[in-house]
């Protein structure tokens, strides 16, 4: 990454039903908070990725709700005035990624009413919140990781994921010249990417679509349908913040 802080949009994904260890957080509202660089793609969310071996904590947000993220992200949030405690982290619960698998979530703007938390082995502890919202229509990483879970029953079983939790198709949300309205699947198929382990090809896929989608992409859905991504990205981020579905976060 370059110099200076990176600004992310934190997307609040509400846990619809608390279970297991999360029961102790009732009756509060509990959100997984996902860090994204592409708030304009939230219409296409199909699931949320968690690192199964990472450690997460629940902390109290300023308004009394609980947020779940890595300890590292919580510390940054405390310094940025996002939590109820200033400059200090007071975890109300500690969890492993494994404890968060198969949860039902409400994801703002998503075409799906309910989406599920699923495992992704490449989620990094040192980036964002350790929670990644998944948009397989526009992110080659997300498309490859979701496909692995669709294609590999042993992988699902290892993490307690049922077939219906991965039975979500990419949603066409952005038209990109030369790639069409599902640019990540198109580029993954063109490059012969078979799984999330095809690291080099995935890097190439990301280089191919990322800038092109930003500079030439046209939104196909929602309030800004028909507009260029680069012209409405900021407005869309503001809309999500105003509706209390998102926050700004830096690191
Ligand atoms: B992006 P940068 Cl549609 N580990 O959001 C791995 N990946 C992470 C992460 C973590 N701890 N935290 C965030 N990310 C992902 C949407 C998206 C993203 C699309 C297309 C490209 C894209 C939906 N997933 O990112 O290293 C998140 O995925 C391509 C760069 O800080 C976040 O934005 O540049 C992006 O990586 C942040 O990566």
Automatic annotation (TrEMBL):
Domain of life: Eukaryota
Similarity field: Belongs to the class-I aminoacyl-tRNA synthetase family.
Protein name: leucine--tRNA ligase
Organism: Armadillidium nasatum
């Amino acid at each position: 990454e370059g110099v200076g802080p990176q600004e992310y949009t934190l997307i609040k994904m509400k846990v619809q039903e608390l279970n297991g260890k999360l029961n102790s957080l009732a009756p509060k509202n509990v959100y997984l908070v996902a860090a994204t660089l592409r708030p304009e793609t939230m219409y296409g969310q199909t699931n949320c990725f968690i690192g199964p071996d990472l450690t997460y904590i629940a902390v109290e947000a300023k308004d009394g709700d609980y947020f779940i993220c890595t300890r590292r992200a919580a510390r940054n949030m405390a310094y940025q005035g996002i939590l109820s405690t200033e400059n200090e982290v007071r975890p109300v619960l500690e969890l492993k990624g494994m404890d968060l698998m198969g949860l039902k979530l409400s994801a703002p703007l998503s075409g799906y009413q309910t989406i599920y938390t699923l495992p992704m082995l490449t989620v990094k502890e040192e980036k964002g919140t350790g929670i990644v919202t998944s948009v397989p229509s526009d992110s080659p990483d997300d498309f490859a990781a979701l496909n692995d879970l669709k294609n590999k029953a042993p992988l699902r079983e290892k993490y307690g994921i049922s077939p219906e939790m991965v039975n979500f198709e990419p949603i066409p949300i952005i038209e990109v010249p030369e790639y069409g309205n599902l640019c990540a699947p198109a580029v993954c198929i063109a490059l012969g990417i078979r799984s999330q382990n095809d690291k080099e090809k995935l890097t190439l896929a990301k280089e191919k679509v990322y800038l092109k989608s930003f500079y030439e992409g046209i939104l196909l859905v929602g309030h800004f349908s028909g507009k260029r991504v680069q012209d409405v990205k900021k407005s869309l981020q503001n809309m999500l913040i105003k509706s209390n579905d998102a926050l700004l976060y830096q690191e």
